[in-house]
Specification:
The protein is an alpha+beta fold. It is built from 10 helices and 13 strands.
């Protein structure tokens, strides 16, 4: 009788342990679902591309106790790169983000069905997780798909060998991938709409309003990371004569092509804006002033050699004057807004010097004494 009672007690304890385990797992899954729901709401409410990417990489790592989260996005036209540059976020400031131009660089990690892959960490995964060989034991590679098109990959890494296994359900991960994909697409669309409002409709470069907003961001980033910054002010020489003698349609043609020539000589991180009338302004982050002067000379020479094709086989040539100023590493004291305004002011004064001393030239702000007289035309 005693043996039977002991056996029942043992079975009862075993059942109790199983019940406790089930309850713990249920509570864990409930907490996990709650955290997941909170993250979903955070992602959906975030429309800034920069903030969204940082949330995906940083918040998911912390909230879900992961050791590494990386993101690969396919960017064949460098659109994402330009958008991030415009926000002041350099990709080297977010090493967990990788932009690739070819979809094959992401497709190689998945099968033809583009299913999530859960497995032990392998040497080949070092390409996805820099330094991961030191800590990671298991990984989850999740394809990001939008409207049937692969747009990237979200990669999760854990130091626990049992965190991601082939037998693990991928329902949560697939839902996560769908939310992330939708939010990235939405943030891109919001950014494009904002960009339309910040673009000059005639020349298709940025307008003055966007430049002034961007100026503060670029100066702030330059101060924070000790990057040199340069600015160019450009003005088409004797543009009023073109408008008066040939009409505004020809004048519009000249401005459009001038904007295109300027843009051809700039990097993805540089920014050109139409400042007003026939004036353009360019910001060149991480660029010493002497390097900016060389860029300005190339722009001036290209424009001097350019023929503007008009009606009836006629053509036109114009020149441009350029003022260049720089913000050097040792001169970054003071308020960010004042530093930016001073940089633009000095570039503008250099432009005025170029126009008053013969036009069709590049002048450095540091190479002349400032003049009070303003020269136009």
């Amino acid at each position: 009788m005693k043996t039977e009672i002991d056996q029942l007690r043992a079975e009862n304890k075993n059942l109790q342990r199983q019940m406790n385990n089930l309850m713990r797992n249920a509570r864990h899954n409930e907490e996990k679902l709650q955290r997941f729901s909170e993250m979903e709401l955070l992602l959906i409410s975030t429309h800034s591309l920069r903030d969204l990417l940082q949330i995906i990489i940083n918040n998911y790592r912390n909230v879900f106790d992961l050791n590494s989260v990386t993101l690969i996005l396919i960017d064949p036209e460098y659109e994402l790169l330009r958008f991030l540059d415009e926000t002041g976020l350099q990709t080297d400031q977010l090493p967990e983000l990788k932009l690739v131009t070819e979809s094959a660089e992401v497709e190689k990690w998945f099968d033809k069905q583009l299913s999530p892959r859960l497995m032990a960490f392998q040497q080949q995964h070092e390409e996805l997780f820099a330094g991961g060989e030191k800590i990671l034991q298991s990984v989850a590679l999740i394809p990001l798909i939008r409207q049937g098109r692969l747009i990237g990959s979200l990669n999760l890494g854990s130091k626990r060998h049992d965190r991601f296994q082939q037998s693990t359900s991928t329902d949560f991960l697939q839902r996560l991938a769908a939310i992330v994909s939708i939010c990235i697409e939405n943030a891109l669309n919001v950014t494009k709409l904002e960009r339309i409002g910040m673009t000059d409709p005639l020349t298709c470069v940025y307008n003055r309003r966007f430049f002034e907003r961007r100026l503060t961001e670029v100066v702030s980033s330059s101060v924070r990371y000790s990057y040199e910054l340069s600015c160019m002010f450009l003005d088409v020489d004797r543009f009023k004569q073109v408008n008066d003698s040939l009409g505004h349609q020809v004048g519009d043609l000249v401005l459009r092509e001038v904007a295109g020539i300027i843009d051809q000589h700039l990097r993805g991180s540089d920014m050109v804006a139409r400042y007003g009338g026939e004036e353009f302004v360019v910001l060149l982050p991480q660029t010493p002033v002497n390097d900016a002067r060389l860029v300005a000379e190339r722009i001036r020479e290209s424009l001097a050699l350019h023929n503007f094709n008009l009606a009836e086989g006629k053509s036109l040539s114009v020149n441009i004057s350029i003022g260049v100023a720089g913000m050097a590493l040792g001169k970054m004291g003071g308020e960010v807004i004042d530093l930016g305004l001073d940089l633009v002011r000095r570039a503008d004064l250099a432009l005025l010097e170029a126009k008053s001393t013969g036009r069709n030239k590049v002048v450095l702000a540091e190479s002349y004494a400032e003049k009070a007289e303003l020269v136009t035309g």
